[in-house]
Amino acid sequence: MQKQFSPLARFALWLGGVSLTATSLVIPSTVQAQSSLNGGSAIPPLKPIPESTYIPPAAPVSTPTNPDSQALATHIVLVLGERRVYAYQNDKVLASYPVAVGKKGWETPQGNFQVIQMVENPVWENPWNGKKVAASLDGPIGIRWIGFWSDGKNTIGFHGTPKKHEHFLGTAASHGCVRMRNQDVVALFGMVQNGTPVQVVQKK
Least packed by Cβ within 10 Å: which of 3, 61, 118, 133? Predict the structure, then answer.
């Protein structure tokens, strides 16, 4: 059964609805809504807007590795119960960072995955009006994107968050994606590459 959302809740979904236009990341044209705040009419019903969506590229996209990394992670582990991600080199913890994970009804998927997409300075596209927002420290998804899960339509990954929203770190607040401080996701970006294993567990 489709969830019903109040206008306020639907506006909240807009805040989490993310589309990336870099590296073939776009919002599907079907997820569009007409907002008539000035006209006073009701906002029409919306399908739940995922944290991010994308259309797979026609050909594999090659993302360079990070040859300048001081220590490349062999795998990363996201512990949902701790709201924390760990970067490992074999059995050694290279670094760990606080995160915000998917809230109830929008849980971050658990399982064994791998990095499938890395985007520097991802461009955010407003799912309501198609307006593009350049990557910035104050942008909705910050300055780095590390995708690790997809069903062919929706995708979930690590991304930055504006400083004014950093208080959500350590909570379950997203629509599935993993929010991080911009400086932390930049550091993590430098330790991984396409194919790096990502394990998502509830607890260690």
Answer: 3
